[in-house]
Amino acid sequence: MTAPAPAPGEAAFRDALGRFASGITVVTSIDAAGRPAGFACQSFASLSLDPPLVLFCVARTSTSWPKMAGTGRFAVNVLAAGQRDVCRAFAVSGGDKFAGLSWTRSPHGTAHLDGALATVDCTIADVHEAGDHLIVVGSVRELDARDGGGPLLYYRGDYFTSDHAVADA
Ligand SMILES: Cc1cc2nc3c(=O)[nH]c(=O)nc-3n(C[C@H](O)[C@H](O)[C@H](O)COP(=O)(O)O)c2cc1C
Could you tell me which residue ranges the Flavin reductase like domain spans (predicted)? Predict the structure, then answer.
């Protein structure tokens, strides 16, 4: 019997998985004291159409997640091409990430970032433990989609925009 191959190391994992390009979101909530919380999040995905569900994965070390979990609600803000600095502001722990940003309090108790391409308001339906992250499943309560501008994209640690579709061969 051959021994199972050792699990890949962190560098190999990041290198291979970083080749999966995605959009970027900021997941937000407003805590019981009325303070907004949020973090940059690439692991957002659409999950189910009927019922409408989405998911994201959050590190167990996140300082924003415990504040969100207590509210039972979150909003996913899909970032537009011009929002690289917004992403950077939400990719740090601590401080007032919302300072200097234009945003509004939604009726769902979440924070909507001005200029986002779409906002998905959810209630927390389920939280699953998975390694050093949690998988958070949300029931979609309201959707807001806006036209104008393309998405902010993330690939191998860099930010990209795309203003054209790949033509047919
Ligand atoms: C492009 C990008 C995508 C990210 N995606 C995630 C993610 O999916 N899940 C996660 O937990 N952290 C993700 N992060 C890291 C968090 O945004 C970062 O750790 C942040 O400091 C967490 O803030 P918090 O401690 O307030 O929760 C991402 C960061 C960047 C720049």
Answer: 17-161
In angstroms, what is the span from residue 40 Cα to ligand 1's centroid?
Answer: 5
pLDDT in tens, 108-164: 999 999 999 999 999 999 999 999 999 999 999 999 999 878 999 999 999 999 877
| Domains held by the chain: number | 1
Rounded distance, CA 105 to CA 109, Å? Answer: 7
What's the rounded Cα separation, in Å, for the pair 11 and 148? 37
Look at residue 137 and tell me if it is in a domain: yes
Instruction: Indicate the burial class of 98 (C-beta count within 10 angstroms; 0-12, 13-18, 19 or more).
Output: middle
With a Cβ cut-off of 6 Å, ligand 1 is lined by 24, 39-43, 57-59, 62-65, 87, 90-93, 154
Ligand 1 mean position to 47 CA, how many Å?
Answer: 20
